[in-house]
């Protein structure tokens, strides 16, 4: 819109022969009319855009990895939350579009009774996908079930390990009681990594194994079929909230980047995950396609298996320090991510807000220091194997080979080995750490504090003590001090070392409104996805 504020501007317009013959008064009236029409057109366009939300019969998404189970509390990871977020729900929702602000989801309101107890009022009339009603008994069952030690539930259980029990007051009221002072309970209960509410009656009827194959939730989509190659969801017509705009959703496995790209280009799918940086221009140049990109609340890293066995070379701390110092993280970012993958300032995320330490130094690269530490470690040329599942993370294969080359420059004999499945005792492996909720307790401590003697057998007691303060203190300054201490110890002991925050790119077909989330959930709810 053009705004003309002075007689001189109007005179220039007239002199340009666009409005020949009009007086200044006539021009002023014409401009006022024009501005009114522009405002009306703008409002009409906004209304049209709002009214243009269209349904889609079938949305097809090409993914690089599939969930191994449809039980959302098992084997929780990036591949699982992409699907499960649309089927299951939590008591509280963390609004990623508003700094993870807490909003009602299955609970309409909540109130702290004391330092150990929160009372929840549940939404009435919520249906499970089998038609049964959700009640407080389901809330109690969900958190009791995490204490059963079901294989694969370890991460979700650790996320909720401060919950002692749940008291059912009436069908729509319950109280969650913690075993310690937990300043983060509401934040935990809003996490997509283990706080899902599950159907007590259905699981008791069909059993855990069947639930892992044919699960039900309260979300806007319900499961139709599940296989290693394809998952099909359909819209749940009795959903308590706004109905989603896709009638059916198919997640289809394309483990290789080239096959995902081909599927997008040929119209087999509408969205693909894990689009490499070098393929962005190809997608953007193709008719009818676009790219959605966002930094994600995740960091790629290398993990060591520290078991105390003298035959395992990475049990030597100086060797681990040398291996970390030998890696040029900025070079990895430049070479594979176009410089967009940022090197972390310690094991933390900017989403921590006031608990983020912007002054903390980033990971160090120092070849000479690495060589000195390697010599001091007594390393004698033993082969170190770096094992990974091919293509599981974007650029993981290429980065592993580059790291091994960097290690060779300081005199380390290392080799990359690709495996279909990683063993628990893999000496060196790649890993990613996702933020479980926006606080240091949802990052470094949650991810590494529960490894203990399983993979970090000489974890210092002071690391454990700092974790206890972080998760159990109401004193903000004490929590900050504990969070910094955790990062200091992690960097000194090197049970693993950080690489960078990756950037996630999605190839998207035009005609779709969809915003990717930093958490890597694919939110297909009505407030985030529709057809155009």
Plain-language structure description:
Mean pLDDT is 89; it is low at 1-49. The protein is globular, with a radius of gyration of 27 Å. The protein has a seven-stranded mixed β-sheet with strand order 8-9-10-1-11-18-12. Strands 15-14-16-13-17 form a five-stranded mixed β-sheet, with helices on both faces. Strands 4-5-7-6 form a four-stranded antiparallel β-sheet, with helices on one face. The chain has 532 residues and is of the alpha+beta class. Helices cover 33% and strands 22% of the residues. Helix 11 runs antiparallel to helix 13 and helix 17 runs antiparallel to helix 18 (476-493).
Strand content: 15-25%
Strands, total number: 20
Rg, Cα atoms, Å: 27 Å
Share of helix among residues? 25-40%
The rounded distance between the terminal residues' Cα atoms is 25 Å
Overall 3D form: globular
What is the makeup of the main sheet? 7 strands, mixed
Biggest sheet, strands in spatial order?
Answer: 8-9-10-1-11-18-12
> What's the quaternary structure here?
single chain
| Helix run count | 18
Q: Would you tell me the structural class of the helices and strands? A: alpha+beta
Uncertain runs are 1-49
